[in-house]
């Protein structure tokens, strides 16, 4: 097994979470989700299958929209977007996401940019992947200070979408909307359950000895380090260059 | 063109990458009409931060305000903390829906999502009703029409008849349809009628909706303009650093060199 960078584990995990989607949308400054989507496309095409359509917001090259910035949301409302990524200044154990600010709204002590399209997309995109590399109690809180987008909705409220997983720099969680809550699916190499409990402000279900996040095989790594980083460099040149620099230091 | 702007007007401004008329920012600040209610379509950045920093803004309706890779919008964030501006936090499709309602001359547009969010809880102008076409239940949010007094944006070209080329940036048309006044700066003014050729006509906002056009080469700078030039990230980062304090902001805005090198 070749050495694998932590971010390569994240990219490969995202590709796995996206398996089966027809159309995935990626936010403007999200190189890791974009790489995961591109990796899935490359893997599918290597098998002779049809890869997912990828829309990268803010990119001219990877953008099919001709009806202005409203079209992504219209497209999602029509059920034409199967997967999307959301981050968050705070994410809580009920899957609620806060992109607005910490402290008492409206005079937030720390103001983040704002909710963007989350208050809509979280409701109508079937496979929303929560992604935040920073895994600390400041991000993963018991209860968010402001709900930009709720993890679950009461019966009777139209909801064709929502969170399916939470991926962090330390672990992968699955979201169970019936509880609602997160369940630890796997732990990335170099981390352990005790550390994850310490770093997570909400309670989550877990096995006594959680398994390790699956590592990519040689063929997947070759695709990632070749074609995918080339494609990624068109939209995220700095990120692709940084990954390649880091790879220069491992046995690739 | 800034003389069109009067105190208390509702002003619609486009997202970073759609064509921001940065060339209009300083004339607006020098003109000095305040108490503006900004509508960011659907998010805001440098221009919003500078108008807030200059003290001209009463409220901001937006889905987000940031300087992108350069980080948070410093004067906006400071004004939020001080309670100096009223916030109308929204979500992108709600802003588009409000403009769409205005475009159709309808009082509102229904929108999915939003129920259970704190956005909705803080918006006394949004309403929840049961879908009248369902057999009962099915709550849905009504977004009132957004009718700006003035829309301001920058695009590559206009013709001498006042038609402006917006290409696939259709939100610029949506803003224009909804607004009383539409002020447009352009990189160049062409001789031929843009409506005369089918290839260009489809991407044209007709003069019918345009109040005034002014020539402003590099008018989106330091933002980029689609099909023309990239964003000057170094300059935006320079602003982000300078504007961390009110004094730094004033010094930055007072510099003579406010154009692309």
TrEMBL record, chain A:
Under Pfam families, the record lists: CoA_trans
Q: Which GO terms describe its molecular function?
A: CoA-transferase activity
The record's annotation in SUPFAM superfamilies points to:
NagB/RpiA/CoA transferase-like
**UniProt xrefs under InterPro entries:** CoA_trans_fam_I, NagB/RpiA_transferase-like
Q: What is this protein called?
A: CoA synthetase
The species this protein belongs to is Bradyrhizobium nitroreducens
